[in-house]
Design goal:
Layout lengths: L2 H7 L13 H11 L11 E6 L2 H10 L1 H12 L15 H5 L5 H9 L2 E8 L22 H13 L3 E2 L9 H8 L5 E10 L30
Antiparallel strand pairs: 1-2, 2-4, 3-4
Helix pairs in contact: 2-7, 3-6, 3-8
């Protein structure tokens, strides 16, 4: 596929056909995704390929607590799980909320899960002392995670970066034998999508690109 076609048609797939994903296909995905950039080229990623159904079920269940909070905040009209605006949703409302299946079932039903982790000992977190949630560490892992999805699209597969289970990271680490210095960055359900989307909705360039300053003239037209 043409690179731009891949970029414009790689959507968040959460429903999959009951078709296995072969080791040979995964090897091609990993072989090409590994060329993603990382800080100092330290390549601190480790990936766990999960096919065992009991393990997938356990990971799916670990999505539930954060999934409840996410769904409750969406229902209240909030931007869920953000660290800037305090939530008005209380614990009782969270607990009473049913989790939409699309938040938890992909981990259970996908043919394979890719659990993407990163060694925090090789990541330069230059924003660690700022008075906000850290984001810079992600620069050394999410380009790789996205490369996995681009490569999967090229293979006719689909998936999505999910993070709800990370709220239960100690339990994920125990389940999969992940050392404490490795952060769980993403759980990617992967398989042949039930349907392939080709027209994705995204903001137009002038809506998010400006010239010279944050409040500068919109770029493009």
């Amino acid at each position: 596929m043409d690179l731009y076609d891949v970029m414009r048609t790689t959507f968040s797939a959460r429903e999959f056909l009951d078709e296995p994903v072969s080791d040979e296909t995964l090897e091609r995905i990993f072989e090409n995704a590994r060329f993603a950039p990382s800080g100092g080229n330290r390549q601190g990623w480790r990936v766990i390929v999960v096919r065992d159904q009991a393990t997938k079920d356990a990971i799916s269940d670990l999505n539930v607590p954060a999934g409840k909070r996410y769904a409750a905040q969406v229902k209240a009209g909030e931007n869920p799980l953000n660290t800037v605006d305090p939530s008005a949703v209380d614990a009782a409302a969270v607990e009473a909320t049913n989790v939409p299946s699309q938040l938890i079932e992909p981990a259970r039903k996908a043919p394979v899960l890719l659990v993407v982790t990163v060694d925090l000992g090789v990541v330069a977190s230059s924003d660690a002392e700022l008075d906000r949630v850290g984001v810079i560490s992600g620069a050394s892992i999410y380009p790789f995670a996205w490369n996995l999805l681009l490569a999967a699209r090229n293979e006719g597969l689909g998936g999505t970066i999910t993070t709800l289970a990370v709220a239960q990271e100690p339990k994920v680490q125990e389940l999969l034998g992940i050392p404490s210095r490795y952060a769980v960055a993403a759980v990617i359900p992967l398989g042949k999508p039930v349907r392939q989307l080709t027209k994705l909705r995204r903001k137009a360039v002038p809506e998010f690109v400006t010239r010279e300053r944050f409040d500068g003239e919109p770029f493009g037209g």
